[in-house]
Design brief:
The chain is α+β, with helices and mostly antiparallel strands and 415 residues long. It is 46% helix and 13% strand. The strands form two sheets. A seven-stranded mixed beta sheet has the order 3-2-1-4-7-6-5, with helices on both faces. Strands 8-11-10-9 form a four-stranded mixed beta sheet. The longest helix is centred in the last third of the chain and has 24 residues, at 365-388. The radius of gyration is 22 Å and the shape is globular. InterPro entries: Aldolase_II/adducin_N (IPR001303), Aldolase_II/adducin_N_sf (IPR036409).
Amino acid sequence: MQNLWNDQDAQTYIDQALAKGQPADLGLRVYTSRIIGQVPDLVLHGGGNTSVKVTQDDGTRIIHVKGSGWDLETIEAPGLPAVYLEPLHEARHQGRLSDPEMVALLRKNLLEADAPNPSVEALLHAYLPDTFVDHTHSTAVLVLADQDNSEEIMREIYGDRLAFLPYVMPGYDLSIAGADLFDQFPDCQGLWLKNHGLFTFGATAKESYDRMIDFVTEAENYISAKGIALPGPEKSDGSLNDTLRENLQAALQSGASPFANRIALDFRTTPSIRAYLANPALEEISMRGTATPDHVIRIKPFPMIIDENSNEGTILAAIADYQQKYSAYFNRNAPNASEPKVQLDPWPRIVMIRNVGLVGLGKDAKAAAIAGDLGEQTARIINAAEKIGRFQPINEADLFDMEYWSLEQAKLQKK
C-alpha cells in the first residue's frame, strides 16, 4: 500500500482552503480523503468516510464529516458538511436513537440546512476524540476481517495498537459500540471492525492517514508472509462472445425485469476471477454473502451463475431459479425485521459465467461498472480468504438488515 502523502500537495490544499475562508484542517481533510479515495484497494464507489473536528473563532466545536452521496476520490468541502459537536455529545447518554431519529439529530445540528446528510457513522466520528478520523474497507483487511478468528489474527498482527469490535450494524448502534470500545482502550490507534473494515485516527491529517496506510500494509504483509497472493485490481483481459451477450441481454430484459427499458453489461475476466470461478465450491461460497455489508445494496446478497454455453432458454431458467432463491431469502428474514418490508426486485446484479468471467448489470454503464468493480474485488478477497482459512462474512440475517435498511435504501435512491 503506497503512501501518497506529498507535503507540496498538502500545502496546496491548505492554501486553497484559506483562500476560500475555510480552516486549513478542512483543506487537509479534503486532501487526505482524496488520496484515500483514489485507491480502489482502500475504498470503492462511495465506500468509507472521513472527518475533521474544528474550533470556530467563537470557540464553538464542529465536525466536518463525509456527506451521503459523495465519493472520497472527488470530494470537495461541500461534501464534508459541518455539524455542531456539543449536541451530539449530549445525545450520547440520553437513550437509544432509532436511525431516523439519528438522522434528524444530525440534520438539526447542521450549520447549513441544505447540506447533505452526514455519514451514517457520523456519531462515531464525533465521539472519537482525535481531530482526524479515517474509515476504509480495505481489500487486505477484509480478507482477514471476514474470518471467524478475525480477532486472533488482528492481535497477532497489531497487538494492542488496534481495538477489536465484533460486527455491529452500521448507524447508531455501531457509533455507540465503537465509542464505548475506544473508551475502554483509549491508547489504541484504530478500530478493527469484524466483517466491515478499519478506522484510524490521529491529531493531524498525516498521522491518521499514515496509520491507515501502515495498518493496511501490515495486513498485506501478513497475507504475503503466508505465501498467499493478493493481487491489486486487475484489468479484464478478454471479451464476452456476441452470442452469449445477446442471450444474456434478451433474457435479462424479459418479463418484469428492472432492466426492461435499458440494460448495461460490464464484462470482466481476470486471472483472479477465473481462479474464483474454478473453485469447486463456487456455488456454496458465492451464497455466503458480500465482502463488506454495504456492497449488498449494489450487488444483492449473491450472484447468478450460468455455464459458458448457456442459451436464452437456460439463462431464463437460471433467472427463475435466482428469483426463487431471492424470494426464499426475503421470506426467511422479513418476518424478523423491526418494521414491515416490501421485497425488492429479485433480479441479479452480477452474473458469473463458469470458466469465462463475470458480468456486472445495471440500468446504465456506471451502475454496471460499479457492480463489475465490486465483483472483481470480491473474487480477489475470497481467493485469499479461503487460503487463510474460510471466507465468512456477516450472517444472512445481518445482511438482510443491511440490504433492507431504510437509510441505505435512501442512499441508493439518491444516487
